[in-house]
Records
---
Amino acid sequence: MKLIECKNLYLGYEDGAIIENLSFSAEVGDYLCIVGENGSGKSTLVKTLLGLITPLKGNIEYLKGLNSKEIGYLPQQSAIQRDFPSSVMEVVISGCLNRHKGLFGYTKAEKSRAMESLIKLGMESRAKDSYQDLSGGQQQRVLLARALMATEKLVLLDEPVTGLDPKAASDLYAIIRKLNEEGITVLMVTHDIHPALNDAKTILHLSQESYFFGNKEEYFASELGKRFLKEAGHHEHH
Amino acid sequence: MSIINEIFSYTFLSRAFLVGILVSLSASLIGVSLVLRRFSMIGDGLSHVGFGALGVASLFALSPMAVTLPVVVLAALFLLNLSKKSKGGDGSIALISSGSLAIGVLAVSLGGVNTDLNAYLFGSILAVSKSDAYISIVLSAFTLFSYVIFYHQIYITTFDPAFSKATGIKTERYTLLLSLLTAMIVVIGMRILGSLLISSLIIFPAMTAMKVARSYRNVTIISALESVIAFAIGFIISYACSLPTGASIVAVHIVFYIVAFVYSELRMRARKKLL
């Protein structure tokens, strides 16, 4: 069952397309890694999937019941956030503001959902702590908990391990793997070869000339895939 | 106590006090978001634009509020767009702000009334007329009201505009609201504090609160409390010692900031010892 299906997309701005004739899809429960050099249009694709840019041509179909506002988005962290005075709970619960009705305060149900989301990510003991006192890896977990507030089905992660040390990065990958096993579809934009190699089911590789879309095994047998492996310092052993 | 009774026996002082409290409160709330977004300098730039507009208004004998408000609102929209494009925004703010100051000074001296210059730069309690007071009360009430209603939206657009946009929050709308409110606060606060000091009403409470509080809600509450208390103390000191009101209020803010700074340093050290 396809959760998202993109057909013959032309993406970019009025002065020209950055991506031409792109077709790919994500199954329910998929783990799709989106890789490619800088400037290949990854962030344009992310903005398009989020509904912030409309495609120049082509269309995106979401499974019935899903809309682009129900994507649990984990953006790249900004410098402003790192020392932002906010409790962990305030950050997480803000994830459901788009569905929030009524003028004031969050409801009890919303608060308990935020707590559940923190429990999923093993951060419940830090709910009352200040976001700025957390380590980089913990901050990403909190932002992932917030992303889960906006969705039950799909998370879109934009370079989630940027700036994390190797241990924190592999912890975060383990959590994402667990979420995926529990049935959440994962789309991840990444420079890092490890999630593509270890966890991904399908790969979308964007490059200036062409693109590759297919399952992981096919990808690493393809020219683009071999090049990525080599650039990341992985050599084939004979 | 007798000094306080004395102050409130004068209608114009009571009026100035009320307006000052409301303006301080509004400024402190908006300040939290401005400081966190690294927009502190916009408040400063706007106050200089306000001074320029005030000078021109007095030269042509126009109503000060009617000229300053639209000019400052336009400047706010302009500056905010500049800083969105980031690169060069900083320099442009400095250009606009010192340029406006020069125009204001020229306009005031062409008009030939130099007492006005002093009042515009450093504020004057006597400048708060009855109609000014009404306008100020309405604008502050509007600010407080919109802040409370859109508290969560302002929080999320400040913390993470990318996420907010993606989840369908109209971030531009709240940024626009914030810049309009800032412009209004600058214009009405300028009469009391003067254009050189008004930005301290926006920046000091937030900076002080951020030293003490660790959650957004507490930063907001402490910022609001600090602004009201600092205004009241500064106002009374200025009356009792015959000192300029604006500068007295800012001096109290400075003291509060230093206390908060020392507190946060001490707490950090205590924490390090624990670890």
---
Amino acid sequence: MIQIRNLIHDYLRRDEEGNVEGSQRAVDHVDLDVHAGEFIAILGHNGSGKSTLAKHINALLYPTEGTVTVDGMDTTDDQYLWKIRQEAGMVFQNPDNQIIGQVVEEDVGFGPENMGVPTEEIWERVNESLRIVQIEHLRKKSPNRLSGGQKQRVSIAGVIAMHPKCIIMDEPTAMLDPSGRKEVIRAARALNAVEGITVILITHYMEEAIYADRVFVMDQGKIAMQGTPREVFSDVERMKKLRLDVPQVTLLADALRQKGLDLPAGILTADELADALGLKPQNKPRKTESTDQKDTI
Amino acid sequence: MKEITLGQYYQTDSVLHRLDPRVKLVGTLCYIISLFIVNSWPGYVAVGLFLAVMIVLSRVPFSYIVRGMKAIAFILAVTVIFNLFMTPGEPLVSIWKLTVTREGLSFAIKMAVRLVFLIIGSSLMTLTTTPTQLTDALENLMGPLKKLHVPVHEISMMMSIALRFIPILMEETDKIEKAQMARGADFESKSIIQRVKSMVPILVPLFISAFRRANDLAMAMEARCYHGGEGRTRMKPLVYERRDFIAYVILAVFFGLCIAMRLLNL
């Protein structure tokens, strides 16, 4: 679906006359493959180059060196520009700065309008998108009156209406409160599981990355770690060095293990830890229930 | 600042609300012109009647409209006072050096009526039309100007984005003001110079943030395939219906009547 080969991106610093003064390498020799239908999480602290990387997939930035191809189309090839932007939709951090419409449904229709979709089909797409992120009841509202989580779901609906194959979310939860974050992550997971859309989630909240199929950790423009969430989070020491927090449960399990408890590495949820500790069976029914819930959200 | 209700869209379901925005735009224009065409008391009564019917049809509560008028009460008062005292003619009352003349009185009242009618009439349009509809109508009506290379689509897109960001920037101004107040900034000072000076620490961050937002928005629009008006389709295209044609006919009759009154010196 997405192939990134040896990607380098330099931000140029210019003086007042526009001459190049110097450059800063934001992305440094990155190779990344994303397959259709995957849920990918990219982690990294501020300035690690994860947003720069994401903007390449949507052809908002072009590689200084290396190539990025989306569905076989090179992002530097102008003839594919709009096709790439339609196939790889993007959700940004600040919901206020990406909603154009003054009514929710009009904003969702903005993408299809730009693509030249006929009027009746726009309505079909808008209805469908609003249903997928479960905000049909808000369709006539002004975006200014919505909560952060709702606004961000409007943004997601706006991308879905373009019928993308892949959605890149650039820290969509960074400005939201915990309940808003949950809303957005739930919507992202539903998109991936139910609609089969490839999701690339960029975040610095580890709890959001545990649902991913694969996790990439970026540091100073390079990919520092990659693997399943279990593999990546089991290396607690390394994560700390990269200035990232592992989920609290993982941290606890790791601490217990170092004290000599016989626990597997890379425990991600409270339930797993409870299981590994062999907690009382009377807790079991409740536990399975909660795991079920997690699977359905 | 949030008290401004003048011309803010009022959501309800009425004939005026359902009317095509182009009709309303053309109608408002005709109405304003007719206000300046008529120049006699019967004429004002006719225009007033027309306006009254429109207000009833709009289903916007009259008190809501009047509340919006508070914002312009000051301008109105100034206009009236100047006209009252500054028009030469047959003196009616004399107070100190100021003289109220018969002509002045009649002119001041006419001016006030005109202003009030003008503002109620045009705010009625924005009360019954969403900003989006309005920009759509504007883009549509200015369509012929595209041939003269006027960037019609861009202008209307700018308008609608500006309208979308007004509440966001207002909120931001409020936030910045509170942040500066928390650090001891004085916005309550009596002297105007002091107050103007105290605006600087609000405006600078506001501008910076506005530019940052503009940058983000441009990127978000591009990411959603925005590339100007070309090849763009409409989610809510403007289509004239029967009621719109009827409205045009009524408008034409009204406008003709106003011209006739002027010509016949009624």
